[in-house]
């Protein structure tokens, strides 16, 4: 298993251990990376939680609303949402999330803030109802070793 995948699974496992009833969003610029991560979660022993994806390939607004409604539902639905940063940066209501893992730096600080603002009640771009639970932003950057960078840094 690639170091980047192992690092993501380790982070998810830690969050699930400390906050078993809270939901997590994993955001990445790369849809293929999220597909690889989804498969790794599916195969990982002991990961018994639902995973949903929200990205630009889902063109039906009805389907998008269904995914978000299921994720935002308290106590039910998937507990992990794999989100492409482009799809997550505009007008998204993800009040069900308590944790956000950003897998790599986004192209600009503004894009970064916009993504976080869709989830965090403390950020200025938030256009949704305030969530009642706490929000934890995990500034974990999962990097590719090809670029000479470490495979994981926090």
Automatic annotation (TrEMBL):
It comes from Coniochaeta ligniaria NRRL 30616. The keyword Disulfide bond does not apply. The lineage of its organism: Eukaryota, Fungi, Dikarya, Ascomycota, Pezizomycotina. GO terms for biological process: DNA repair. CDD domains: SF2_C_SNF (cd18793). Keywords: ATP-binding, Hydrolase, Nucleotide-binding. InterPro entries: Helicase_C-like, P-loop_NTPase, SNF2/RAD54-like_C, SNF2_RAD54_helicase_TF. It comes from the Eukaryota. GO terms for molecular function: ATP binding; ATP-dependent activity, acting on DNA; hydrolase activity. PROSITE patterns: HELICASE_CTER. The keyword Ion transport does not apply. One of its GO terms (cellular component) is nucleus. Residues 4-154 form the Helicase C-terminal domain. This is Helicase C-terminal domain-containing protein.
